Amino acid sequence: xxxxxxxxxxxxxPAAVAAAMQNAMRTMSSPGRGGHHAAMRAAETAFTCRSELxxxxxxxxxxxxxxxxxATHALNIAIKSLVRPGDRVVISGYEHNxxxxxxAALGAEIAVADGPLFRPEEVLEAFRHQIxxxxxxxxxxxxxxxxxxxxPVEEIAAICRSRKVxxxxxxxxxxxxxxxxxxxxxxxFIAMPGHKGLYGPxxxxxxxxxxxxxxxxxxxxxxxxxxxxxEMPDFLPDRLEAGTHNMPGxxxxxxxxxxxxxxxxxKICQRERRLTLLAAEGLRTIPGVEVYAMPGLRNQAGVxxxxxxxxxxxxxxxxLAERDIAVRTGLHCAPLAHRSAGTLDSGTVRLSFSDFNTPxxxxxxxxxxxxxLR
Length: 374
Description:
By secondary structure, the protein is of the alpha/beta class. It has helices at 15-27, 37-56, 71-82, 97-106, 120-130, 153-163, 182-185, 247-263, 265-283, 313-322, 335-341, 359-373, and strands spanning 2-3, 65-68, 88-92, 109-113, 135-141, 167-170, 189-193, 205-209, 289-292, 303-308, 325-326, 328-330, 348-352. The relative contact order is 0.17. The model has no long low-confidence stretch (mean pLDDT 97).
């Protein structure tokens, strides 16, 4: 199978990920649940994973790295720690439902800092305008899951610091692909999945907690610490990690993080961008196809959307699936991004790459698409 759906989940994983998960199932129980060897191996693996993530993202304290089920879980913790019903929250025009639905459920006042696709200067100006003294929080994804648009989070973070407004960054499409430094950004939270650019398994995610934010729990229960008291511990990571840890998942995530650290985030990004550029150039040669990319992929990561004139995107996706080519079609759980780009009525066909894709796969995809559209 040619797999171009890594913005949903990276399908090809380093071999070490599966091996680490199998080893965890054979040798580990749960951290903090005893002093025996199986529990201690689990505790050591969990702490090592936190430590390597802390080093990767410029965090001095590994205990502020919290394991979650996915980025959605992490974002819900972050949002519900900062936002109360009626609070004004500024978001970008390219946010995922993992951001907009929790805000809607809270009854927050949502202000959209909207800007044209691949125009970070105008997005930044919109944030400057929308962040007012009444703003309770700012939320911005680093990279759009639909268009690969790299948003100016460093500059947005600087505005938030100067105006003393907490910032939540959704790094779902940039973790493992673009550099981020929690200390330099001064963000309140950064949320990311384990199963995308970090090459871990599904069911893993990470919430990086910074500053002096008082985190609120979504779940309460056992942590293996302070068992006598009926309130959740007031320290991280225990406060946010109620219940039994997913140790096979954490062990697999550690193997994925080690893979990207050895390979290098910059090299992975360069490979994905080369493949994206190759696909974009090929798509532009097909009559009736509209490609959502700037020349040279300016301000764009390894995600690419396109539409075809008078062709339903779902039909295109199914035709490619019949040829064993995996893409994503529709609205991609991000109707706000489609509204911003003008594709809400049609949706798009999305290609998203990983470090395991090749130029040959791109050529085969282009050949199959041309046959479908002729």
